[in-house]
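Please, structure for the following, as tokens.
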Amino acid sequence: MKKSVINTALAVLFACISTVSIAEGVLLKSEPKNNAEVSQFDGTVKLWFSGNVGERAPSVVVVDGSGNRVDNSDTRLVLGERHRLTATTKPLTPGPYVTRYRVVTEDGLIVSGVLKFSIIDNKPAATEAKP
């Protein structure tokens, strides 16, 4: 009976530890959001993580629908906010894009993923000519 209680307590402890380590470095949000249709894009991809991202080679790559790289290869950690990464892009034309990211948390956890977004044409409405 006593052994069973100890085994159960250890199982709960290991489950809690696993949950905590999984939560470290999880992508919390992004701009643009996954599967977003964006009409006004400022040229900056932003990624927020639940834990501190380490300085070991964070990577953000943005490609267009043809697989051509359109980011400026300037992934960086935002000073004062080590849980946020940014990267800038060239001017984007309407169409689909994919953001691939890979970071290593300070705990050594590798976090990677893919986010999709589309730039949609946002032409202003034509104005009527005044007589």
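The helical segments are 2-23. Confidence is low (pLDDT under 50) at residues 12-22.
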